[in-house]
Write a structure and sequence with these properties.
- The chain is 41% helix and 20% strand.
- By secondary structure, it is of the alpha/beta class.
- The protein has one domain: Alpha/Beta hydrolase fold, catalytic domain (Rossmann fold, 3-Layer(aba) Sandwich), CATH 3.40.50.1820.
- Helix 2 packs across helix 3 and helix 4 runs antiparallel to helix 7.
- It starts with a strand and ends with a helix.
């Protein structure tokens, strides 16, 4: 793990120097860059890649208590400047996809590809916003560990959970060590993010990656998104939940390579 101070805030990252375009991976809610660790080690050792703890998660400081996805996107761009990386192929998992969308809105010229990894372009519904607010209150009451323990096992499909329990338990421990204030700041960023459906028909090519057993991303949303003219690459991973990078890593890497050969 490496650290940089960006705009007076600590940002944790891991950079690998290899070949080809830089692959930037952004993790989801209650996760850290560690969720990509095994995948990166096994499949990406020969590639240029960058793993980042999203501000407010892992070992990266939150930007502010009321941070937005736009704020986070600018912080990531400033990290890229610090590392002298001009352009990236960004793959955002779940919440990380919301950051990737904000990056596309802020400066599409710095993205050669927008990868939505079990993520979506839609704003929160009123019901979802209410659920996030309830979660904020629970975290304020010291229930972060309870939330992580109940949330994390659902990231993977029930079929794969027994084999991945050790990894899930590690992710839970990572989440328990995070600052409640940072988690709450990211909840605010998620619930206040704009609708980004226009990006589906924008200029930035999109790689939409979905799965058939995802408890967080309904098939109806996937079908709607895949119709976008900017969705140049679509991957449906069978027998997989919300985390193909641990459930079906070999298929995920095969699909990444397919896209890399065309850019």
């Amino acid at each position: 793990m490496q650290f940089a101070v960006i705009n007076n805030k600590r940002v944790a990252y891991k950079q690998n120097i290899g070949k080809g375009p830089t692959l930037l991976f952004l993790h989801g809610y209650l996760e850290s860059m560690n969720v990509f660790g095994d995948f990166a080690t096994k499949y990406l050792s020969n590639h240029n890649y960058l793993l980042v703890d999203v501000p407010g998660h892992g070992n990266s400081e939150m930007i502010s208590p009321q941070q937005t996805m736009h704020n986070i996107a600018l912080q990531i761009f400033d990290l890229l400047d610090y590392l002298k990386i001009e352009k990236v192929m960004v793959y955002g998992h779940s919440m990380g996809g919301y950051v990737a969308l904000a990056m596309a809105n802020a400066d599409k010229n710095r993205l050669s590809l927008l990868g939505l990894l079990h993520s979506n372009v839609f704003a929160d519904s009123e019901e979802k916003k209410a659920n996030r607010l309830r979660e904020v209150e629970l975290i304020k009451l010291g229930k972060l560990s309870t939330i992580a323990t109940s949330f994390m096992p659902n990231i993977v499909s029930e079929k794969h959970y027994p084999a991945l329990k050790h990894s899930i338990d590690s992710w839970i421990r990572d989440a328990e060590a995070m600052t409640p204030e940072g988690i709450i700041a990211c909840l605010h960023a998620m619930m206040n993010r704009p609708d980004n459906q226009q990006i589906l028909n924008g200029e930035t090519p999109i790689h939409l990656i979905a799965s058939d057993s995802d408890k967080f991303l309904p098939l109806t949303a996937i079908e709607t998104m895949k119709q976008g003219t900017a969705v140049k690459y679509f991957t449906m991973i069978p027998d997989c939940g919300h985390a193909s990078f641990v459930e079906k890593p070999e298929i995920l890497y095969k699909e990444l390579k397919r896209v890399l050969t065309t850019l």
